[in-house]
Amino acid sequence: MRNAIGRLGAAFALVGCAALPSGAQELTGGDGFMYVGTYAADVHVISEEDFSVVARIPAEAGIPGGLLATPDGSRLVAPTIDYEWVEIFDVAERRSIDRFTLTERNAKMRVRAMAVHPDGRHAVIMARRYQKLRDRWDIGDMELFLFDMEGKERLQDVPWPGGAVQETRGSFGFSSDGSQFYFFTDEVHIYDTESYEEVDSWDYSGALDEGMGDFRFGFTTTPREEPDWYAGFFRVSEDIQDRSVIGFARANPIERRVEAKVLGPAEMGPQGSFALAPDRSMAYALRQEVGNYQLWAIDLETAQARHVVFEGRPRMSLEVSSNGRYLYIYAAGNTVDVYDAGTLELRHTIDLDADMTIGRLWILPAR
User: Fold this and answer.
1) Which pTM value belongs to this model?
2) Rounded to 5 degrees, what angle do the CA atoms 78, 80, 81 make?
3) Are 190 and 199 in contact, with CB atoms under 8 Å apart?
4) Which of 9, 193, 299, 310 is in the most buried spot, having the most CB atoms within 10 Å?
């Protein structure tokens, strides 16, 4: 399928950022709550209303290495940093309600990736077994399987896409209605969740216009996108001018559609974490280059962009506030920096009681 590609001529139009008058905008991110795991073995809960830490949810299984929100936002699922436990937190009650491990006796089973089914009970897990023998550790192949998180039972193996075992961390997920499971490689491998057998595949590499190289896309989970749509940046070679360019794309495996816009030369653009505004009209992104940290704002309708160079950090991630007014830069360290989405200026810093672990900061509505 061919799609409209934004032209390079209008791309990366740089616009100056004027500061708002002091007090012109109330410093509030909305009525949601931010959730982030920390090395204090807890989940910090931060109110967007005034950017205060309102709760710390103790973890019982260990330090949460990352957080996954169930599709309905009622629970957070957190593999620990040693990959051996998975803990489940109730968002409304702000407490740990369950945990499980795949490790048995002298065989450690370490979770490398997982995706939670929309029913909130089942998950597909990618894990590797480390068996302790008398004189050595025997490291097994990566395994992919369906797991019942309530019954704490491994239900069945899931065949590897195309029969090829993946030895690195995989990217996979479910359709919004739970009827399909996707494993993303250079193609989208499509499984029916009645049998968890691969039933189809989608080669999306030729989705762009002629003169553009093969399209490769990450299909990362994108909060605020429409159901079954994935959004993000891509890089591709442009044969006509013999250069690498960066673009923004949306892709839907069910409809097998790609919507893409080229933004400009890759060497000029963002290279890191990105997030969508609540109305999906804007995307914000980082360029994580030591000595040249950049914060970008990109109008997805016009493909125009602006950026500022700012004092970043070697490892950082980005999210947008519930009301779309502010950008949250977080990750390494114990602070969340709050930037104005319009001016790209630092407005506030949230101090936490512990360093954050690597993982997504989730913004969920009040419950």
Assistant:
1) 0.89
2) 130
3) yes
4) 193
